Amino acid sequence: MNAIEVKNLSKSYGKAAALKGINLEVSRGEIFGLIGPDGAGKTSLFRILTTLIYPNEGKASVEGLDVIDDYKKIRQIVGYMPGRFSLYQDLSVEENLTFFATVFNTTIEENYYLIKEIYKHLEPFKTRRAGKLSGGMKQKLALSCALIHKPKVLFLDEPTTGVDPVSRKEFWGMLKNLKKEGITILVSTPYMDEATLCDRIALMMNGEILKIDTPGEIINQFDKTLWKVHGKDMHRLLYDIREHEGINSCFAFGDSLHVTTRRRDMKPEELSSFLVGKGHSELTIETIEAGIEDCFMDLMK
Amino acid sequence: MGRFVIEAENLVKKFGDFTAVDNISFQVGEGEIFGFLGANGAGKTTAMRMLCGLSKPTSGRGRVAGFDIEKEPEKVKSSIGYMSQKFSLYNDLKVWENIRLFAGIYGIPKNEIEEKTDALLRRLNFEKEKETFVKALPLGWKQKLAFSVSIFHKPRVVFLDEPTGGVDPTTRRQFWELIYEAADSGITVFVTTHYMDEAEYCNRVSIMVDGRIDALDSPANLKIRFDGENMDEVFNHLAGTAKRKGD
Amino acid sequence: MKQFYAFVRKEINHILRDVRTMMILLAIPVIQIILFGFAISTEVRNADIAIYDPSNDAATQRIGELIEVSSYFNVYKYVKTPQEINNLFKRGEVSMVVVFSDQFREKLMHTGKAEIQIIADASDPNNATSLTNYLKGIIGSYQQELMREQKVPYQITSEMKLLYNPQMKGSYNFVPGVLGMILMLICAMMTSIAIVREKEMGTMEVLLVSPMKPLLIIIAKAVPYFLLSCINLTTVLLLSIFVLDVPVAGSLFWLITVSLVFIFVSLSLGLLVSTVTESQMTAMLISGMVFMLPVVLLSGMMFPVENMPFLLQMVSHIIPAKWYISAVKDIMIKGAGFEAISKELAILAGMIVVLLVVSFKKFKSRLE
Known about the structure:
The complex is a heterotrimer of chains A (301), B (247) and C (368).
Chain A (H helix, E strand, L loop, with lengths): L3 E10 L2 E11 L4 E5 L6 H8 L7 E6 L2 E2 L4 H7 E4 L11 H11 L8 H11 L12 H13 L5 E5 L7 H15 L4 E6 L10 E6 L2 E6 L1 H6 L5 E5 L3 H10 L3 E7 L2 E6 L6 H10 L6 E4 L4 H9 L1
Parallel strand pairs in A: 3-8, 3-9, 6-7, 7-8
Antiparallel strand pairs in A: 1-2, 1-4, 4-5, 9-10, 11-13, 11-14, 12-13
Chain B lengths: L3 E12 L2 E12 L3 E6 L5 H8 L7 E6 L2 E2 L4 H7 E5 L10 H11 L4 H15 L14 H12 L6 E5 L7 H16 L3 E5 L3 H4 L4 E6 L2 E6 L1 H7 L5 H9 L8
Parallel strand pairs in B: 3-8, 3-9, 6-7, 7-8
Antiparallel strand pairs in B: 1-2, 1-4, 4-5, 9-10
Helix pairs in contact in B: 3-4, 5-6
Chain C lengths: L1 H16 L1 H21 L7 E6 L5 H12 L3 E7 L2 H9 L5 E5 L3 H8 L4 E5 L4 H26 L20 H31 L1 H6 L5 H29 L9 H25 L3 H19 L11 H8 L2 H15 L3 H25 L6
Parallel strand pairs in C: 1-2, 1-3
Antiparallel strand pairs in C: 3-4
Helix pairs in contact in C: 1-9, 2-7, 2-9, 3-6, 7-9, 7-10, 7-11, 7-13, 9-10, 10-13, 10-14, 13-14
C-alpha cells in the first residue's frame, strides 16, 4: 500500500485554479519533497490530504483511507505542520508539547525517543513562551508537537521558509533521522537546494506537476548542455551572452552565470571568441552538471 | 552631503535589558548593492528600521540620504524607497491605481505620472496587465512591480526586506536584474535576504550575529577569509557561532 | 475526557495570561455599578424654575413653600408678568415655569377645582418629564395636606403612581441592565472571539487534524467564560446589595437560576457567531452591533420599551436580554417568585434550543 495516493486532483478557489489534475504516489517511509514557488498549489494539496478542505475533482487517500469518507481516521494517524507557525504563542514550550500530547491521547514520555534529538535544542527554553522563540526554534517546537503521537505520515508545509540557513540544515538533519522510524514524510519547500535531500521530488508550478522522480534522475534527464561562465565584468557579461544566437538561456547563479545552449554540440570556443570580441577578459567556461534549480528553470519555460 | 549614502556610527538599540543591535558601524556608497545578512533574531530588522527612520536608536548616529536618522526621520522616510516581502502593494487596487497611489505619496508631479507609468509598464512587459487587480497577479510579477514602484521617484537609496521570498527561481533572477539596473542608475540598494546565492550578487555583504556585525566585505574577499567555496559556507561558519539561538 | 480537561486548562491559561483583557472583563461590572449607582443619575436636582403667581394667597403660597423646600427645584425667580416667561425660556434661564390661575384658593374652596399650568422646556424631554412628575408629586402632597385639614376631596389630579421605588432611584433600573449587558458581553462576544481567534491564528487547523472532536474544542472554549460570568454575577449582586442598597426582594435561588439560563443563551449566541465568522474583527463587530447595542437600547435598561414604536417593541421581543432583565427586575424589586418569571424562563430556554440547533447545523469540521 502506498502511504499517499493522489489521482487527478483538482482544486479551485472561485475562478483561480490552485491544483489542475495532480497525480502522485508516495511510498511508505519515503521523504517526498514538493518543490515549487508560492502559488504552485503545495498548500492546497496539503490541506486536501490532511482532510481540511475538499477537492473539486479527483481522489486522494492516506494509508489507504479516503480523504473524504474516512477523514476521522486519517486525523488520528497523521502529524501536520502548517505553513506559518501555528502553535500557542502565549503557552510555554513545555505547555504546548504537553497539550498536543494529551490531545492525541498520549504522553510526552511515551514517544520521547522520537523527539529527543530535536527537543534537546529546546530544553533550555522549555519554560519560555513560544511566541518569544526565534524562527528556527519555533520550527523545532512545531515539529516536536507534530511528532509527539508517532504519526504514520508527517505533513510539513514549508517548514523551513523564513528560517536562517543554519537552522534549515539542522531541520533536514532531523528529518533524515525520522526516516529510520519508518515515518512517511511529505514536505514542501521553495528552496531548490533542499530538493536533493529528499528521496523523490515533484517539481510544481501553477497547480501543475512539471516532473516527478528522484533528484538524481531529474538531473540525468536534463537534456541541454550547461556551462558555468565567469569573467571580469559579470554584469555586462550577462547581457552580452544573451545576444549570442546559439544561447538558449543565461542566468546569474551566485558568483557565476549558468548558460544553456540551443545545440547540444556547441563548443565553448564559439562563445568565448564572441565575448572576447565584445571586450570581455578573464573568461572561464566550464561544462557542468545541472542542479535541481537548473532543471526547474528549464522545465518552467 | 558626505560621499556616503548610508552611514551608521556605533548604532545601538536596546529593548529594556535586551540589546538587539550592539554597536554597528558601516558606510554604503552611491550605487552600491549592499547585502545585509544574518540569522533570525540577529538584529537585521531592528537595524533596518532604525536606518529607515522608523525606530529611534538607543545611542549612536546614522545618516541616510544626507539626513540624520534620529533628528530628521521624516526627511529620511521621504527620500527612500522601501519594499518588503510582507507588504508591497494593495491587493484590491489595479496595477495602474497602485502606481498612481504611490506616485502621489512620493510626490511625483501629476503631469509626469502618466508618462512614467507607461514607461514602467513597458520595461516590465506589463502593459497588458494595466487594468488587472494586483491580487490576481502571480507573486513574482507582484514583487517585480512592487520594486519598480518603490523606486518610481528615483530615491537615493531603496531598502528591500527579503523581497524574493517564495518567488520562483527565474523570476527571482529577473528581479535581481532590475536591482542591477537600479544600481546602475545610481540608486543605492540595501537588501536583506535568506538566499545565499543572492549574497553573491551584492557588491559588499555584512553578516550580523547576536546584534553585532561579524563580517563586512565583498563576497569574494569573505570567501577567501573564511575559506568557503560559496557564501553558504561562509555564513555557516559565522552563524554557527551565534549564542542567541533561542531568541 | 482527559483531552477535554487539557483543553479547558489551556483556555484558562490563555485568559489568565492575557492580563489586560481579564482585568477589563472583571472591572467593567464594578465600574458600571459604581458609575450608575453614584455618579450618573437620571434624577434631576436643583433645576432652575420660575413661578408666576397672580393670586398670591394662602394656597399658592403654601404650594410655593413646598416647591422651594424640595431639593429638586431651585426657585430662580418669581415672575411678575406673563411676558417675562417667554424670555426666561429663551435665555435658558429656567427649565420650567409654574403658573397658578388667579384667585386660586377661592376657586379651590368654592368649586372644588383649581388649575395649575406647568410649562416645561421640552428640548430635553426626559428632563421635562421628570420635572413635571416631581411637581405633580408636590401638588399631590399639598392635596393630602388639605384633605387632612378640611376633609374635603379637592381635585388636583396627580397622575403618577410610584410603586416599589417611591424615591425613583435609578439604581433599581440599572442593576438588572448591567447584569444583562455584562453577561452578554462575556459570554457572547468573548466566547465567539476566542473561538474565531483560533481560526485566525491557524491553530484551529492543527487541532482539526487530530483525534479531538471539534465540538469538544468549542465547548471547552466556552467553559472559562462561563466561570468568568459566574464570578461577575456574584460580584454585581454583592455590590448591589451591600453598596447600592438595592436588595434582592425575591428568591435568590430563582435569580441565580434565571441568570444561569441567560448565561447559556449568551454562550449559544457566541457559538453561533463563531460558526459564521472568520475573523475576530467580524466577531467583535457582530457581537457589538447586533447584540450589545440592542441590549442597551431595546431591553428596557435605559429607556422604557413601552414608549417605543410598535415595530421596535416587536424587535425587542427577540432580544434575550429583554426577558432576562424583566425577570431580574421582577425578582429583585418586586419580590416575585417562579410564577411571575415562568414565561421569561420558558422563552429563554427555548432560545437556547434554537440557537444550539442552528449552531450545530452550521458547524464545520473542515476549514471551508
